[in-house]
Amino acid sequence: MNLLESFRALADPTRLRIMRLLASMELAVGELAQVLGQSQPRVSRHVKILCDAGLAQRRREGGWVFLRAAIAEASARRNAPSELGNALARALAAAEAEDAEFAAQVREDRQHLDAIRATREASAAEYFARHAADWDDLRSLHIADGPVEAALIALLEAADAGKPLGHMLDVGTGTGRMAELFAARATHVTALDKSPEMLRLARTRLQGLPAGQVDLVQGDFLSLPFADGTFETVLFHQVLHYALAPEAVLAEAARVCASGGRIAVVDFAAHDREDLRLAHAHARLGFSDAQMAKLLSDAGFEPLAERALAGHELIVKLWTARRRDAGALATPASAFTKS
After folding, report:
1. Which one of 102, 255, 275, 327 is separated from 41 by 20 to 30 angstroms, measured CA to CA?
2. What residues in the chain have per-residue pLDDT under 50?
3. Whether the model pTM is above 0.90
4. Cβ density class 149-175: b for 16+ within 10 Å, e for less
């Protein structure tokens, strides 16, 4: 980050307003245009200047482009901003606190932002209403979410004598519930989903969290857009049964998991409900302990523990494992311990 370029980029009232908005949450360029009352091409020009100066970052998600502040993420990210970036973030916050005219403009912008949040929530509610019957039908077959979430937290906290979760990857985040659940427990959460519509639902759920605490990323679990060894914890919550090749999915998870890091898989025990293939696009009818142990071991994980939570027709299973060091011997595929 260059001081002169940063000052030049900030020497405009609209770009100052944009930076204060991005301190609150990630926003689409179109949403910024709506808040600012300016045309999208004009806002895009401001965005380019901020990005070129290293003050903001773009991220494409389907047909949308989202913008986040690059100088407001010091504590959350593995690659923290420089001292200059931190100082600029503090200066913008101080300007809002001490400059009455600027503060009034930012307050008005945030009121418009609240309207955008309300629109997101209404859209999410409408989506859930459309699909409620399908999801309720599936939920009726297994235990409620609360006990599953409590068991997952307990298993992860017990793994490796309470080793911190660190940077967590939530694969197939869906509505963002797992990212929300672990946001305060992990150093940072990256929530990935292939569907832009699901990411919009997740963004609605997570928009009240501090900016930079959770990243939302569009991507495929067969080709994760992250460097090797990026995460200390990888989570698959009711996702792996959608995979035609779970062995390839777990191998990719192992690639981005740091040595000694952990993986947790929440899914169904093996069952014979063939109707779920058509009604809910399940590629796999659950997994046995032996299947899961082999899948994890072949991918480079050492099985740690498993837990079963019986519901109605379907049993929810939780499995945890540790990433082996490169070259370490594989653990026998029956090595899960009961928890």
Report:
1. 102
2. 73-79, 329
3. no
4. bebbeebbeebeeebebebbbbbbbbb
- β-bridge mates for residue 336, sequence order: none
Instruction: List Cβ neighbours of 20 (8 Å cut-off, separation of 6 or more).
Output: 92, 96, 106, 109
Written as six digits, the tokens of 130 are 């459309």
Confidence (pLDDT) at 175:
87
- Measured distance CA(269)–CA(315) in Å, rounded: 5
Sequence-ordered strand ranges (E) for the chain: 27-28, 56-61, 64-69, 167-171, 188-193, 214-218, 231-237, 257-268, 301-310, 315-323, 337-338
Q: In whole angstroms, what is the distance from residue 190 CA to residue 221 CA?
A: 13
Q: Cα(82)–Cα(258) distance, rounded to whole angstroms?
A: 25
Q: Which of 297, 228, 303, 294 is nearest to 262 (CA)?
A: 303
CB-CB neighbours of 270 under 10 Å: 16
- 192: which 2 tokens? 């990935």
Rounded to whole angstroms, the Cα distance separating 116 from 109 reads 11
Could you read off the pLDDT of 61-114 as tens digits, one per residue? Answer: 667 788 888 875 433 444 455 678 778 888 888 988 999 999 999 999 989 888
Return the structure tokens found at 235: 């989570």
How are the residues of the chain apportioned to helix, strand and coil, as percentages rounded to the nearest 5?
45, 20, 30
